[in-house]
Design goal:
The protein is mostly helical. Helix content is 79%, strand content 0%. The radius of gyration is 20 Å and the shape is globular.
Length: 230
């Protein structure tokens, strides 16, 4: 990789991978809980909850970054409390970039997991219940194993989407080298610099390669999910 990328470009790549991994896996338990809620239960306001979960898909990422800045800025209601009480600061840090990516990619995980859960034969959990299995036993030993391909598809799709996130990150945590400058922000920075076209092209080709790899993995996982649940 050193022969293809310069040290700052390698730094942007590694930072992108770290931010995406933290964003996806920290959101995964909440995504599974939300998917389970939408797939297996009926309650008043379900349509509204479903819509709120999927809002990041249609809301401009810049707007999400701005709202995060208002809420989690050092003088925001949540950001000020976290900084004063726990010493945690999201704004202008890589953890803030992970938070923004987690929110942007959350619907991708929920959608993939929900489709997987809805494809599971309800008779399997009903049979386990008749044998005396408690709800957590049915969840861990029946539902979760059958939903694993869908969970994997959600993880890979969200990871790929997180690698390409730009608007929310630059709005919320700015473009700081070594801290918040991910691959998309590095491409943007290169294009703002005289003679930076070659660097932008290298990073763009790298982004395309990563996107193709992760989308292929997501398609494989989705086929596995459909095959197991058929």
């Amino acid at each position: 990789m050193d022969g293809f990328l310069t040290p700052p470009e390698s730094e942007a790549l590694l930072l992108s991978l770290r931010i995406s991994a933290v964003a996806v896996f920290s959101a995964l338990p909440f995504a599974f809980a939300a998917a389970l809620l939408l797939a297996r239960t009926q309650f008043p306001g379900k349509t509204l909850v479903d819509g709120l979960i999927h809002v990041p898909l249609v809301l401009p990422p810049v707007a999400i970054g701005f709202l995060l800045l208002i809420a989690f800025g050092t003088r925001g209601p949540l950001g000020g409390w976290l900084l004063d009480t726990l010493g945690i600061r999201f704004v202008f840090s890589w953890t803030g970039a992970a938070l923004a990516s987690a929110i942007i990619t959350f619907p991708f995980q929920v959608r993939a997991i929900r489709l997987s859960l809805e494809a599971i034969d309800p008779g399997l959990t009903a049979a386990a219940e008749t044998l005396g299995a408690m709800w957590w036993d049915r969840l861990l030993n029946v539902t979760l194993p059958l939903a694993l391909p869908g969970i994997a598809a959600g993880i890979v799709t969200a990871f790929a989407a997180s690698l390409g996130e730009f608007g929310a990150i630059i709005t919320f945590v700015s473009n700081i080298p070594g801290e918040t400058r991910t691959l998309p922000l590095a491409i943007y920075t290169a294009l703002q610099s005289p003679g930076g076209e070659a660097e932008a092209m290298r990073l763009s080709l790298l982004s395309i390669g990563l996107a193709l790899i992760f989308m292929t993995l997501a398609e494989f996982a989705q086929r596995r999910a459909r095959g197991l649940n058929a």
